Amino acid sequence: MTNLISNKTPYVFAAVFAMALYSSSVLADTLPAVQQSGDVTYITGGIGDEERDALKAVKQDYNLRILSAGVQGAYVGDAHIIISDNKGQELLNTNGGPIFYAKLPNGHYAVSEERHEETKKQSIVISASKPTDITFRWK
C-alpha cells in the first residue's frame, strides 16, 4: 500500500500544480487593469462572477475598498468616485464600481460617490493597521 501511494505522489503533485497555474491564469485574464492617478493606485470592476472573484483575490492588496450596491443588495456599476485629501485637494475622480479598491497613504480623506445626480459622502481614516471598507447603498 505504501508503494502505491508513493508512486502516485508525483502525479498528484503535478495535478495540483496544474490546477493552481490554471486558476491564477484565469484570475489574471479576468482581473481589470490596475490604474494610477498621482499617488493613488486603484482597480475597479466586478461585473460578472469571474471578475468579482478575480477582484476578491487581490482585495488584501488595497487599504480602501468600496462596494456600490442597491438597497436590495444588487451591485451597482455606474457610479462616479471622488477621493480628496484632508485639505480638500482632489486626488482621484473616476467612474467605478461596483467594486472599487485603492491604495492610499495613511491619512484622512473624503470619499464621495455620485450616481444619477445624487451624491453620498463619507469621511475616512486610512491607517496601516487595517483596511477601510465602505458600502454605498443606492435606491
Can you describe this structure?
Helix content is 28%, strand content 43%. Residues 18-27 have low confidence and may be disordered. The chain starts with a helix and ends with a strand. A hairpin with a 4-residue loop joins strand 4 and strand 5 (90-96). Helix 1 crosses helix 2 (49-58). It is globular. With 139 residues, it is of the alpha+beta class. It has one domain (31-138): Immunoglobulins (Immunoglobulin-like, Sandwich), CATH 2.60.40.
Which structural traits does this protein have?
139 residues; alpha+beta; Immunoglobulin-like; five-stranded mixed β-sheet; four-stranded antiparallel β-sheet; 2 helices; 9 strands; 28% helix; 43% strand; globular
Write the layout of secondary structure elements.
Layout: H1 2-30, E1 35-37, E2 40-45, H2 49-58, E3 64-70, E4 79-85, E5 90-96, E6 99-103, E7 107-115, E8 118-126, E9 132-138
Parallel strand pairs: 3-9
Antiparallel strand pairs: 1-2, 2-6, 3-6, 4-5, 4-7, 7-8
Helix pairs in contact: 1-2
